C-alpha cells in the first residue's frame, strides 16, 4: 500500500522524522485538531504514535501531499492561502505576524513534503505533446503535463534502457491500468532539473 511505503520512507529518514514531530506539535496540535477528524490523534498515544497517526491521516487525504512536489500539494496552498481555496487554519493570515516561528513552520512543511521520497526531484520538460509514462512491462500508464515535478529514484533505470524510474503517487494523470508497485518510467530526455 502506498501510504505504508511513504510512512516507511519517513521512518527511515531521521531529519524527516524530526520535521514530522515538529509539524505535529506546533501546527497540527496547536491549530488543526478539532477539525479534520482530529488527524487520527487519540488520548494516551505516545509521541511516536501521534506522529504516525498525523502522517497517515495527511497521506490519506486526496491531494494534500505530492511527495517531492510541495508546490502541487494542497497542504502548501491551504496553509499559505495560495489560490482560491480557503486559508487554513481559519485566521491563519495573522499567524506569521503573531506567532514567532510560524513562517519557519510553513517552510518545514514544504521541506517535509519535498524530502519525503528518497531521490532527485526533476521536472517534466516543457513542450508538447504531454509526456507519456510507462510501467516496467512497457504498458502505457498515462501522460504527465509539462512542468510537473516527479521524484526520480533511478536516473538510468537498470531495467529500461533510455528511461528514468520515478515515484509519484497515482494522481489524475494515471490511466488506471498501472500501479506504482513496479514503478513508473519516462524517457530520460523528458526530464530536466528543478530550478
Beta-strand content: 15-25%
H/E order of the elements? HHHHHHEEEEEEE
| Quaternary status | single chain
Shape: globular
Tally of domains: 2
- State the helical fraction: 25-40%
* Arithmetic mean of pLDDT: 89
Low-confidence stretches: none
Q: Compute the gyration radius: what is it? A: 18 Å
Question: Major sheet: order of its strands?
Answer: 6-5-4-1-7
Number of strands: 7
* Sheet with most strands: 5 strands, antiparallel
- Helix-strand makeup class: alpha+beta
What does this 3D model show about the protein?
This protein has helices spanning 2-12, 14-32, 47-60, 74-80, 95-98, 102-114; strands at residues 120-124, 131-134, 140-144, 149-154, 163-167, 184-187, 191-193. The protein is of the alpha+beta class and 195 residues long. Strands 6-5-4-1-7 form a five-stranded antiparallel beta sheet, with no helix packed on it. A two-stranded antiparallel ribbon has the order 2-3. The two termini are 31 Å apart.
In terms of topology, how is this protein built?
Blueprint: H1 2-12, H2 14-32, H3 47-60, H4 74-80, H5 95-98, H6 102-114, E1 120-124, E2 131-134, E3 140-144, E4 149-154, E5 163-167, E6 184-187, E7 191-193
Antiparallel strand pairs: 1-4, 1-7, 2-3, 4-5, 5-6
Helix pairs in contact: 1-3, 2-3, 2-6
Keywords for this entry:
single chain, 195 residues, alpha+beta, 2 domains, 5-stranded antiparallel sheet, 6 helices, 35% helix
Amino acid at each position: 500500500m502506498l501510504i505504508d511505503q511513504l510512512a516507511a520512507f519517513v521512518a527511515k529518514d531521521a531529519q524527516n522524522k524530526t520535521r514530522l514531530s515538529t509539524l505535529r506539535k506546533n501546527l497540527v496540535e496547536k491549530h488543526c485538531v478539532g477539525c479534520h477528524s482530529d488527524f487520527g490523534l487519540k488520548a494516551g498515544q505516545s509521541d511516536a504514535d501521534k506522529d504516525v497517526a498525523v502522517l497517515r491521516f495527511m497521506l490519506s487525504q486526496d491531494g494534500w501531499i505530492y511527495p517531492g512536489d510541495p508546490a502541487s500539494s494542497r497542504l502548501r496552498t491551504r496553509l499559505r492561502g495560495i489560490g482560491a481555496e480557503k486559508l487554513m487554519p481559519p485566521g491563519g493570515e495573522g499567524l506569521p505576524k503573531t506567532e514567532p516561528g510560524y513562517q519557519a513552520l510553513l517552510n518545514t512543511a514544504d521541506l517535509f513534503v519535498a524530502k519525503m521520497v528518497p531521490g532527485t526531484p526533476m521536472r517534466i520538460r516543457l513542450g508538447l505533446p504531454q509526456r507519456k509514462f510507462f510501467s516496467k512491462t512497457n504498458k502505457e500508464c498515462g501522460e504527465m503535463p509539462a512542468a510537473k515535478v516527479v521524484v526520480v529514484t533511478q536516473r538510468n533505470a537498470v531495467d529500461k534502457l533510455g528511461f528514468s524510474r520515478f515515484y509519484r503517487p497515482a494522481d489524475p494523470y494515471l490511466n488506471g491500468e498501472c500501479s506504482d508497485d513496479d514503478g513508473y518510467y519516462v524517457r530520460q530526455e523528458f526530464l530536466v532539473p528543478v530550478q
